[in-house]
Amino acid sequence: MKKRAYVITFLFGVMASLLVVFIQLPYYVTMPGTAQALEPLVHVENGDKDKGSLMLTTVRMGRANIAAYVLSHIRPYYELYPLQAIKQEGETDEDYTIRQLQLMEQSKEAAIIVAYQHAHKQVTYHPRGVYVMSVVKGMPAARVLQVGDRIIRIDGKPVSTSEQLIEYVRQKKKGDRVTVTWKRDGKEQMATLELAPFPQAPKQVGLGLSPMTDYDVETDPPVQIDSEKIGGPSAGLMFSLEIYNQLVEEDITKGYKIAGTGTINMNGEVGPIGGISQKVVAAAEAGADVFFAPNEKGAKDSNYREAVKTAKKIGTTMKIVPVDTFDEALRYLYTLH
């Protein structure tokens, strides 16, 4: 009997452990990720080698199980989010991943353009279509389009930017029909859709999609960015600084470890990101000397202000530097000795 009791207890323990690990809850959990040197990921042909390093910071994220749920309530900088706070309505896990990778591609394109222009190197770019970033459940686009499709024509007219697509549809009214031509897996497809009101804004009509312009960027010297499976736009600023550093003769790191985060657009403007505290923790653990944080033009709840509070809490001597533009980050680096 005693042996049987031991076996039952053991099996119960195994089952409980499996439940804790494998049952997924309707939440995502995020935690500090890594701060990794960008030089191995960015390759400018005949680019300079430098003593210091510019580092990309990340946040680890995944679906929460019972163990992760418990940890999020007791571990510092473990954050819990409901599914709808991370994914858009009707978005699958695959759609979310594709959207994040496309945001990374857009971020890399902007980083290349900004870096080459500031380094006075040759760069040209032109739009070649509009990516579908997401579709709204119940709207016309959701019936035929998928995340990752590239729209190339509307009503037979070429469309090369998201602005062109939005402006064209904006002129239409409820019940109007438009013919959309797109590419998926290299194959061209076409469908005629009737515009409909948006669920959250009935006075506005449209197709129900979020577009993003796909650019073809050419540079001299050539550049390649191996972003691997990293998604999202938050590495834009640091990519642009690393590319610039490889293009110019001087070492803008001055031998320091420079970490940071922030989106960047083609005008060199730096935008806010999520998970700033977790990225500060990751950078501090990697021994960074400086951390660039989006300033959001001095907003009271800016990434920069949160980063300063986090740095103080964890007791790091890492310098938190506010930036609104690529120029500001560059000017700070040139003041280092």
Instruction: Find the count of extended strands (DSSP E, 2+ residues).
Output: 18
Strand line-up in the sheet with most strands: 4-1-3-14-17-18
Q: What is the CATH first-level class name of the largest domain? A: Alpha Beta
Q: What structural class results from the helix and strand content? A: alpha+beta
Distance between the termini: 76 Å
* Cα shape: globular
Largest sheet: 6 strands, mixed
**Taking all residues together, what is the mean pLDDT?**
89
Q: Give helix % range.
A: 25-40%
Pattern of helices and strands = HEEEHEHHEEEHEEEEEEHEEEHEHEH
Beta-strand percentage range: 25-35%
Question: In terms of per-residue confidence, which ranges show pLDDT below 50 for 5 or more consecutive residues?
Answer: 10-21
Please tell me how large the radius of gyration is: 23 Å
Question: What's the number of helices?
Answer: 9
Total discrete domains: 2
- CATH topology (level 3) name of the largest domain: Ribosomal Protein S5, domain 2
Examine the secondary-structure arrangement and name the CATH architecture of the largest domain: 2-Layer Sandwich
